[in-house]
Amino acid sequence: MGKRRAYGNSRSAILSLLIEHGTLSRMDIARKTGLSRAAISLSANELVEEGVVQEIGVAASTGGRRAKMLRLGGATRLVAGAAFEGDACHVALINLDGQTLDRVTIENRGPRTPESAIALTARAITTMMADRARESLIGCGLAFTGQAHARSDTFSSIGWSFAGYALRQQLERRLRMPVEVLDNAHAAGLGELWLQGREHREHLIYIYAGNGVGGAIIADRELYRG
């Protein structure tokens, strides 16, 4: 018997399985999770309406009504990715189909404080979203040279005074959207997982050499944060 994962709710089940498999029907997702077909259908319809999931046709006929297939993605919802290298903040705007729509680089002219990192990220995002609907932006990822501390939800970095500062929480308050903060190695490892074929690769060990040397371990598509 294949392994069954625990899902917090039907929305997370749909998103997790579409990331893993690429395309599935509502019935496929219900079978794989053990959640009710009604709950999956309701959440799937919400995600389609929000532009996070797309219906891309129908499955092959099995004698009855052909099921509509779902995939993660779409051009109407956007995410921002920010990376700090030295005193430069690089931010890219990407849609859920993986297309890069815009890029901005801003130099930090002041002290290396958490407040300046937040201000630079917010400024870059504001610039890129000037002619776009703000509600289309659904999340932001931030990568820094340093180390994320999962238990305390803080970040430490050489050259930046982040000690004890709740960087992710403060950036979420400033941007008013979900934010993920990772070190450069872990962020690059996740990027490699996606770029190399998200529906096929389960495990990955990634070595990062940039402003320092680090690594990332991904097992069963879950990032190890220890």
How would you characterize the overall build of this protein?
By secondary structure, the chain is of the alpha+beta class. The protein has six helices and 13 strands. Helix 1 (10-21) packs across helix 3 (37-50). The longest helix is centred in the middle third of the chain and has 15 residues, at 114-128.
Shape category? globular
Question: What is the residue-mean pLDDT, rounded to a whole number?
Answer: 83
Total number of strands: 13
Point out poorly predicted stretches: 1-6
**Rg of Cα set:** 19 Å
Number of helices: 6
Q: Describe the sheet with the most strands.
A: 5 strands, mixed
Strand order within the widest beta sheet: 6-5-4-7-10
Give the helix level as a range of percent. 25-40%
Distance between the termini: 30 Å
Proportion in β-strands: 25-35%
Structural class based on helices, strands and sheet pairing: alpha+beta
SSE run: HEHHEEEEEHEEEHEHEEE
Short synopsis of the structure:
31% of the residues lie in helices and 33% in strands. It has 6 helices and 13 strands.
